[in-house]
What does this fold into?
Amino acid sequence: MKHYNVGIIGATGMVGQRFATLLENHPWFTVTALAASARSAGKTYQAAVGGRWAMTTPMPESMKDMVVMDAAKDIEKVASLADFVFCAVDMKKDEIRALEEAYAKAECPVVSNNSAHRHTPDVPMVVPEINADHTAIIKAQRKRLGTKKGFVAVKSNCSLQSYVPALHPLMGYGITKALACTYQAISGAGKTFERWPEMVDNLIPYIGGEEEKSEKEPLKLWGKIEGDIIVDAKGPAITTQCLRVPVSDGHTAAVFVSFDRKPSIEEIKEKWAAFSGEAQRLNLPSAPKQFLHYFEEPDRPQIKSERMLENGMAVSIGRLREDSQYDYKFVCMSHNTLRGAAGGAVLLAELLAAQGYMD
Ligand SMILES: NC(=O)c1ccc[n+]([C@@H]2O[C@H](COP(=O)([O-])OP(=O)(O)OC[C@H]3O[C@@H](n4cnc5c(N)ncnc54)[C@H](OP(=O)(O)O)[C@@H]3O)[C@@H](O)[C@H]2O)c1
It folds into this structure.
């Protein structure tokens, strides 16, 4: 496989730090550029992050002394150093859309963790196991942007990263409706307990904008390319409630689902066990060998024992049983900053590289 130089935009943030650790020993990608706000620009990565380093492993030695660039002012410089960039920044949506398109127009593809472009109709939003074929829309996006190589591709929100993969292999039974209550970790808000002490022994029943994302984004993932746009699927309808819980990493979802043709419990477990996608077929470096893991024990999946399964890239499922109002209910969980954020974006970049879009 060809080797690629990559940049991290928002390198000093929670997701940016996760990119730095994931890319430290990546077999295909080497970090050659770091960028963040004007506050960090001109400082070494170590100085810019200061006391904010939130990873359990130390800052990569190879990046400590790299000088952080200004994400908005140094676009040409970053683009000259990197074959493509990962982007995770805390800015207004219209500013993010403009920033990401500016990188694309500088012929530097962007793999984004931000939500700003998720509903731009010619921007693919991809979970590589579910809709790897949506990357074909990049041709139309390049035409709109007037680029040869540059484009923006995004990953979906961390909240849905457990229940959409669990529902996807069951689509053949005709899902009529689904309900998901999510219990989301504080790292999803870019926080640690040190920086958010109010979350210790607490639950906040509101995460701004999260329920809308959790209900709308699955329809784009299940959508189809028609001409120069991706058209959202009409269903299945999903209703959600998203709660912030005192967990450092790992989003759990309690899911209820009904079908046109109700499968048996054994059939559902077989579908989950047999499920794999393009990420496994292409043997991408960050792909879990087994994407969906079912646990028979009644008290699993648990955050502490399951979140790092397959390097935090798998989905853990348990407690599948009949329900009195829906056909079935179950619980599922995924690591929100690995599979749900930086890890999912690295896997998407691997897919794009394997498909030839980074050349
Ligand atoms: N945390 C998660 O699990 C998660 C999951 C999925 C998606 N996301 C998304 O990823 C993005 C980043 O989240 P995060 O949790 O990593 O946030 P964060 O920890 O607050 O980090 C924000 C980053 O954005 C940079 N930034 C802020 N203003 C900027 C500007 N004007 N120009 C350039 N860079 C600027 C910051 O640089 P300075 O250090 O210089 O200020 C920092 O690197 C958000 O859009 C978020 O919604 C997060």
User: Anything to note?
Assistant: The mean pLDDT is 97. The pocket of NAP is lined by residues 10-16, 36-37, 39-40, 71-72, 88-91, 113-115, 158, 187-188, 190, 336-337, 340-341 (CB under 6 Å).
